Amino acid sequence: MHSQVLLVRRSVLAVALLSVFTPAFAADSGAPDSTSDLNSVVVTATRTDQTQASTLAAITVIDRADIERLQPQSVQDLLRGTPGMSIANNGGIGKATTMFLRGTESDHVLVLVDGVKIGSATLGLPSIQDIPVEQIERIEIVRGPFSSLYGSEAIGGVIQIFTRRPAGSFVPNFSFGVGSYDSLHGSAGLAGRSGQGWYSLEASHDQTQGINACRGKPFPNGAGCFTYEPDRDGYRNNSLSLQGGYRFSDEWDADARIFRAEGHNKYDGTTSNSSDVVSQVAGTRVHYKPIKAVTLTLSLGQSIDLNDSYLNNVYASTFNTRRNMGSLQADISAGGGLYSLGFDVQRDKVQSNTIYPVDHRVTRGLFAQWQQTFGSQSLQASVRRDDNSQFGGKNTGSLLWGWDFTQELRLTASYGTAFKAPTFNELYYPFYGKPTLRPETSRSFELGLRGTHSWGGWSLNAFQTKIKDLIAYDDRPNLPLYPYGSANNIDRALIRGVEATANTTIADWSLSGTATWLDPLNDTSGLYHNNVLPRRAKESARIDADRHIGDLSFGGSVYVAGHRYDNLDNSYRLGGYALTDLRMTYAFQKDWRLQLSANNVFNKHYETAAYFNQMGRNYMLTVRYQPGQ
Fold first, then answer.
1. In this predicted model, what pLDDT tens digit does every residue of 462-516 receive, in sequence order?
2. 3-class DSSP assignment, residue 10
């Protein structure tokens, strides 16, 4: 056992060092590949258009070319190894998946789909496992506190998923794949532009017989899913997205979109072991530019998260969330700077067979932002006031600074506050919720340095986040108004970390790597003080290598994670692990490609959540058609 621990630690160190110091050996390399194009436009870091190179925040962009090169089977596969990210999954594709960004809690990450906030208002978690990768055009991951622009949840960062967009006048696409665990995949779509309009339609189907999701222990002394069901827990997902837009004049343009995914998921459990789920996002935007210096944007959207659960095919429960949103934003160019003023409103509604004393809430937010460049230095400052019908008001703010002290090097520093509103479960769930809960709050500092060179690029970011009033299960017996074991604002956390990224090209090999060192500590006085927060790996790293030779491209990824703990007292230790994925693409005819991916090729057994299994060695063979690729 000791030798295995040493092996994982050495693997983490080796991959981390290779990830960070690859550029040092790049004397004979060419330019970085297109996946690191710093001229690409991003919007999540400021709620306005800017190039990736000009952002002051730590940001990762995954585009459609990356997705097709990496051949991930799920969003969790796609996000694994991005800087600062730890992922916990409950038993394979389609199973509950949670993200811990920069060591913060799983409900401290705000997830948007085409600008619309998604997630369950009862659990406080987005169902990223139900978003098929074939529906995704790009993902922007902004790390750090951004409540001053987006409100609740954005303590660890913001992840925005954009659905497929047209890349030409008429671009159809088709893919079909078969793989391990009786997996089938199919997708088809078309997109295009005509005159001043554009449109996109995409449909996909995914299914797998899956693996035995949980090796749980029944009562008494149970653990995991608290039951023993040695079976295969399958998953099925059908999804459709439709969107379009039109420019009516130089002053007016508008777009609208809808995405819907319907899934059936089997798992192991005592109160339910299957569920029908629906994730739906709809939205529309209107842009009006009365003069060159002013742009007004009106956005309306709705997200739906539906879950009907069953135990042995007998109905057990319903937890549905409907979220309606509206936003009005004005962007004004003046004095060489950009000023943004905005108003957001959000209404959450819960429908369930569990009775909640309060089943809806309204949140209103007013924010302002200033962006300015002074020669080689840049500033971004924002403030926001949120008013929540459940707990009242909350103020947040952030300040980011950047200095290009050479043409190739940029120094950044930032400070920000953020918060997370209590969920409906934390406030009102029978025998657990506490209506007087306060929002969780945070303060974060960050210092970064990044370089952009002819041979590639690199970045290094160090950060510290203090979180107080964390909501947790309170087992103290002296609660006069609330039952033993209710939720309470009793926990604190102190998180420090360093992230590193690098990319380059050496001898026709495109190389990129990330490494994260994290110290996520429980800062609550008492029994758990200075324990590591659950399900966060303190060290993780990833390196990708890809090469093209004529019509053939091939590559691989190595991801390494150190050990983590599954509980607050750190008594249950989950071992570190290393995963190796291989991939190949062959363009056998014009517009046609054959792809083969082999994942976890060394058949490593590992867990990211205690007692929940992960897939062993698996394969996927896919044929793909898309003109002009």
1. 999 999 999 987 665 545 555 556 788 889 999 999 999 999 999 999 999 999 9
2. helix
| Ramachandran assignment for 335, one of left (phi > 0), alpha (psi -120 to 50 degrees), beta (any other) | left
- H/E element, 6: helix 2-21
Q: Which long-range contacts (CB under 8 A, 24 or more apart) does 410-413 make?
A: 410/449, 410/450, 410/451, 410/452, 411/448, 411/449, 412/56, 412/446, 412/447, 412/448, 412/449, 412/450, 412/461, 413/446, 413/447, 413/448
Domain ranges in the chain are 2-167+251-546+566-571
Tell me: the pLDDT tens digits for 17-34? Answer: 454 444 433 333 333 333
Topology at the third CATH level for domain 2-167+251-546+566-571: Maltoporin; Chain A (2.40.170)
222: pLDDT confidence band, cut at 50, 70 and 90?
confident
With contact defined as beta carbons under 8 Å apart, do 85 and 71 qualify? no
Span 435-464, pLDDT tens digits: 999 999 999 999 999 999 999 999 999 999
Q: What is the DSSP string of 302-358?
A: EEEEEEEEEETTEEEEEEEEEEEEEEEEEEEEETTEEEEEEEEEEEEEEEESSPPS-
